[in-house]
Amino acid sequence: MTPSFSPYLVNEPFGDPGLYVEVRWAKRALLFDLGANENLSPTRLLRCTHVFVSHTHMDHFIGFDRLLRIALGRGKSLYLYGPPGLIDNVAGKLRGYTWNLVDGYPLSLYVTEFHADAIYAAAFHATDGFVLQGQTPIGHPRVHGAREGIFPILEEPMFTVRAVALNHRIPSFGYVLEEQFHVNVKKERLHEAGLPVGSWLKEVKQYLWEGKPDDFWFTATLFFEHRREERRFRLGDVKERFVTITRGQKIAYVVDCRYDPDNERKIVELAKEADLFYCEAPYLHRDVDKAQERYHLTAKQAGLLARKAGVRELVVFHFSPRYTGMGDLLYEEAQEAFRGVVRSEVTVTESHE
Q: Residues 43-102: pLDDT tens digits?
């Protein structure tokens, strides 16, 4: 089964945070956090339609400028989502430049920030010199009945992105991307029926995600080796004969928060049974006091959270530079806690400040 989402970290674990998720069937991508992103080619950045910002500390937001620069002059819209203050942060970035020659540029930025009691939206258009438009309340983030403070950020037929505000002495959003269900095409059955694979199957998937009924009829354009043909299909027949529907993919992303009972509850619920859990692990547990003071997790705590959430795979990153050359220790500590391995503590006397 080919997964719908292809995720990978933008940088190595000691670099700035960022998770790039390609939506394979749609030729688009989602980006979680805007740290330094020179490792993403312009082509990959241009595939990004939606960006989800945890918070706007420099290592999570400095990549906004490069994204903006590459998107300038392109006929596209960018959607950014994040915690309180994101609209002002974007406005401040845009005010730092002079825009007298961009009146013919088609780029638009749409920014949405989520407060405990309201949602605010704003727009910035290149044609207007990126002057702030709006910043008006558009709803309430808990209208869908949030559990453990988890609320929907973006809802599309194929997938949903949800967020939760975690304590980093400011709100730092953790995110989960969840496919509604996975549609896998039975190519052998198609060949047996004399039908080609092709873009018409993307339409079938979209109809299924949209919840079209079995008696929904549609016209598909089929491309054979030497001809093109229009055919009518009943969705229920296609679903029964040519596709398998299984559990959707789930990817969780958590950065910059400390280990406390409130954060633990929220993270465990957010990442529950995720296929992939990307979790920060800046500190070794021997430095747990420093981690607590800086409102960050240890590698052991990341592993414990993953274990409690019952995730399938844990990926740790956002390592502190104090452990340069010691990345294996952070990986090992996280995986041992995740797998439930118990071992005696090793005392390390060397300082790695």
A: 999 999 999 999 999 999 999 999 999 999 887 899 999 999 999 999 999 999 999 998
Q: What is the pLDDT of residues 115-147, one digit of tens each?
A: 988 899 999 999 999 999 887 777 766 644 467
| Residue whose token pair is 């819209």 | 77
Domain ranges of the chain: 192-245
Cα 50 to the chain's mean position, in Å? 9
**Whole-angstrom distance, CA of residue 29 vs CA of residue 21:** 5
Residues making up the chain, counted from first to last: 353
